[in-house]
Specification:
This protein is mostly helical. It has nine helices and five strands; from the N terminus they run H-E-H-H-E-H-H-H-E-H-H-E-E-H.
Length: about 210
């Protein structure tokens, strides 16, 4: 609405934030899914799923269960082990099979942000995954870097960070912004880790 210039017209809605599930809700959901689908799971599997994801985004919990169930069927088994969780995380959720779920996170940014905002968003997400966090110092470097080509760079960065936090890509800690979701962090890392230069290393470069 802000991008379209009509935020003042949205004045009869109250915000209601639906955050991710906590560990208890995620584990309970996974265990009930296993029970309803008659899939036997080793003790600790549900907790291992939550640890692998890093946060309880409902769709990711349900998707992880579906991939584990398919993994068991394909291997002719009726039981899932804790060891299977890591295998399926790497080969299915982060592998070719899981790309449709994850590419949505980039697509929605590209569709919802203007070009300059989108480019800055990708810089922030790449920095946050490669450096494990997006620090205040990195933020100043990004503002200085983009001030060369766009006006009001600090304002653009602030707007983008607000979107990334609001939509759950990042969370604002005491000293930096970080990925709450390990799955999203690992997906972005796989894309940028071999060809990304951290912001503070760009100082003085032409």
């Amino acid at each position: 609405m802000q991008r379209l210039g009509i935020p003042d017209r949205i004045n009869h809605l109250d915000p209601f934030r639906l955050g991710p599930w906590d560990r208890h809700a995620s584990v309970t959901c996974f265990e009930r899914l296993a029970e309803s689908h008659e899939l036997s799971i080793e003790h600790g599997v549900a907790d291992a799923v939550y640890d692998a994801l890093g946060t309880g985004i409902p769709h990711h919990v349900q998707s992880f269960f579906a991939w584990l169930q398919e993994f068991a069927i394909m291997h002719g088994r009726d039981r899932v082990t804790v060891e299977d969780v890591d295998t399926v995380y790497r080969t299915a959720l982060l592998g070719p099979s899981g790309q449709n779920d994850l590419v949505h996170y980039e697509t929605r940014l590209k569709e919802g942000l203007e070009d300059e905002h989108y480019t800055i968003a990708m810089e922030i997400l790449a920095e946050a995954t490669i450096q494990e966090r997006f620090t205040r110092s990195a933020r100043r470097c990004l503002e200085q870097w983009y001030a060369r080509v766009v006006g009001h760079a600090p304002g653009l960065v602030a707007d983008v960070l607000e979107v990334l936090v609001h939509d759950g890509y990042l969370e604002d800690g005491d000293d930096a912004f970080r990925f709450p979701s390990r799955l999203l962090k690992d997906w972005w890392s796989a894309r940028f880790r071999d060809h990304y230069i951290p912001l503070e290393e760009r100082r003085g470069r032409p």
